[in-house]
Amino acid sequence: MAQCAFCKDETEIYAGGDIPICVECSDARHATRKPSGTEQHIHATLLRDFRDATTRNNQATREFEAVMGRLPSGLQHAQRIQNASSNLTMARKGMMTAHNRLNDYLGRGVVPEDLRRSG
Predict the structure, then answer these.
(1) Whether 50 contacts 104, CB under 8 Å
(2) Are 12 and 23 in contact (CB under 8 A)?
(3) Is residue 84 predicted with pLDDT exceeding 70?
(4) This prediction's pTM
(5) Range of the domain at 21
(6) 10 with 61, same domain?
(7) Number of folded domains that form the chain
(8) CA distance 12 to 6
Protein backbone atom coordinates (compact mmCIF):
# COMPACT_ATOMS: atom_id res chain seq x y z
CA MET A 1 0.00 0.00 0.00
CA ALA A 2 1.26 3.47 -0.86
CA GLN A 3 1.39 6.62 1.25
CA CYS A 4 -0.70 9.65 0.31
CA ALA A 5 1.52 12.26 -1.33
CA PHE A 6 -0.07 14.97 0.83
CA CYS A 7 -0.77 13.62 4.33
CA LYS A 8 1.26 10.37 4.26
CA ASP A 9 -1.70 8.14 5.27
CA GLU A 10 -1.87 4.72 3.62
CA THR A 11 -3.96 4.58 0.45
CA GLU A 12 -4.72 2.37 -2.55
CA ILE A 13 -6.01 5.26 -4.68
CA TYR A 14 -3.92 7.13 -7.24
CA ALA A 15 -4.66 10.47 -8.86
CA GLY A 16 -3.53 10.97 -12.42
CA GLY A 17 -2.35 7.37 -12.59
CA ASP A 18 0.76 7.74 -10.47
CA ILE A 19 0.21 10.04 -7.48
CA PRO A 20 -1.01 8.21 -4.35
CA ILE A 21 -3.79 10.15 -2.61
CA CYS A 22 -6.14 9.30 0.25
CA VAL A 23 -9.88 9.93 0.09
CA GLU A 24 -9.72 12.88 2.47
CA CYS A 25 -6.99 14.69 0.49
CA SER A 26 -8.75 13.93 -2.79
CA ASP A 27 -11.98 15.40 -1.41
CA ALA A 28 -10.11 18.46 -0.15
CA ARG A 29 -8.49 19.03 -3.56
CA HIS A 30 -11.85 18.86 -5.30
CA ALA A 31 -13.62 21.00 -2.69
CA THR A 32 -11.79 24.13 -3.80
CA ARG A 33 -13.27 24.07 -7.28
CA LYS A 34 -16.92 23.56 -6.25
CA PRO A 35 -17.93 20.53 -8.36
CA SER A 36 -21.49 20.26 -9.56
CA GLY A 37 -23.93 17.85 -7.98
CA THR A 38 -23.42 15.52 -10.92
CA GLU A 39 -19.65 15.51 -10.44
CA GLN A 40 -20.07 14.82 -6.74
CA HIS A 41 -22.42 11.93 -7.53
CA ILE A 42 -20.03 10.45 -10.09
CA HIS A 43 -17.06 10.78 -7.73
CA ALA A 44 -18.99 9.24 -4.83
CA THR A 45 -20.27 6.40 -7.02
CA LEU A 46 -16.84 5.56 -8.39
CA LEU A 47 -15.25 5.75 -4.96
CA ARG A 48 -17.97 3.52 -3.47
CA ASP A 49 -17.55 1.02 -6.33
CA PHE A 50 -13.79 0.95 -5.73
CA ARG A 51 -14.20 0.46 -1.97
CA ASP A 52 -16.76 -2.32 -2.55
CA ALA A 53 -14.49 -4.04 -5.08
CA THR A 54 -11.53 -3.78 -2.72
CA THR A 55 -13.61 -5.31 0.07
CA ARG A 56 -14.68 -8.19 -2.20
CA ASN A 57 -11.06 -8.72 -3.21
CA ASN A 58 -9.90 -8.79 0.41
CA GLN A 59 -12.66 -11.25 1.34
CA ALA A 60 -11.82 -13.50 -1.62
CA THR A 61 -8.14 -13.39 -0.67
CA ARG A 62 -8.92 -14.44 2.90
CA GLU A 63 -11.22 -17.20 1.62
CA PHE A 64 -8.56 -18.49 -0.76
CA GLU A 65 -5.90 -18.46 1.94
CA ALA A 66 -8.25 -20.23 4.37
CA VAL A 67 -9.09 -22.92 1.83
CA MET A 68 -5.44 -23.45 1.01
CA GLY A 69 -4.52 -23.60 4.69
CA ARG A 70 -7.21 -26.17 5.56
CA LEU A 71 -6.62 -28.60 2.75
CA PRO A 72 -4.09 -31.37 2.72
CA SER A 73 -2.26 -31.78 -0.54
CA GLY A 74 -3.95 -34.04 -3.03
CA LEU A 75 -6.20 -34.00 -6.04
CA GLN A 76 -9.42 -34.74 -4.09
CA HIS A 77 -9.57 -31.07 -3.08
CA ALA A 78 -8.84 -29.63 -6.51
CA GLN A 79 -12.41 -28.37 -7.08
CA ARG A 80 -12.50 -26.39 -3.82
CA ILE A 81 -9.13 -24.84 -4.64
CA GLN A 82 -10.28 -24.02 -8.16
CA ASN A 83 -13.49 -22.40 -6.87
CA ALA A 84 -11.62 -20.24 -4.35
CA SER A 85 -9.08 -19.31 -7.01
CA SER A 86 -11.81 -18.35 -9.47
CA ASN A 87 -13.53 -16.17 -6.86
CA LEU A 88 -10.24 -14.46 -6.10
CA THR A 89 -9.52 -13.86 -9.79
CA MET A 90 -12.97 -12.35 -10.36
CA ALA A 91 -12.67 -10.13 -7.27
CA ARG A 92 -9.26 -8.87 -8.40
CA LYS A 93 -10.57 -8.10 -11.88
CA GLY A 94 -13.51 -6.23 -10.36
CA MET A 95 -11.19 -4.27 -8.10
CA MET A 96 -8.95 -3.31 -11.02
CA THR A 97 -11.93 -2.25 -13.12
CA ALA A 98 -13.24 -0.08 -10.30
CA HIS A 99 -9.74 1.34 -9.71
CA ASN A 100 -9.26 2.17 -13.39
CA ARG A 101 -12.68 3.86 -13.62
CA LEU A 102 -11.99 5.97 -10.53
CA ASN A 103 -8.46 6.76 -11.67
CA ASP A 104 -9.65 7.79 -15.15
CA TYR A 105 -12.23 10.09 -13.60
CA LEU A 106 -9.90 11.66 -11.02
CA GLY A 107 -6.91 11.95 -13.34
CA ARG A 108 -8.48 12.81 -16.68
CA GLY A 109 -12.12 13.62 -15.96
CA VAL A 110 -13.40 10.64 -17.95
CA VAL A 111 -16.97 9.85 -16.86
CA PRO A 112 -17.86 6.17 -17.36
CA GLU A 113 -20.62 5.58 -19.89
CA ASP A 114 -22.94 4.00 -17.30
CA LEU A 115 -22.75 7.13 -15.11
CA ARG A 116 -23.48 9.66 -17.84
CA ARG A 117 -26.92 11.24 -17.74
CA SER A 118 -29.15 10.22 -20.62
CA GLY A 119 -30.95 12.67 -22.83
Answers:
(1) no
(2) no
(3) yes
(4) 0.52
(5) 1-34
(6) no
(7) 2
(8) 14
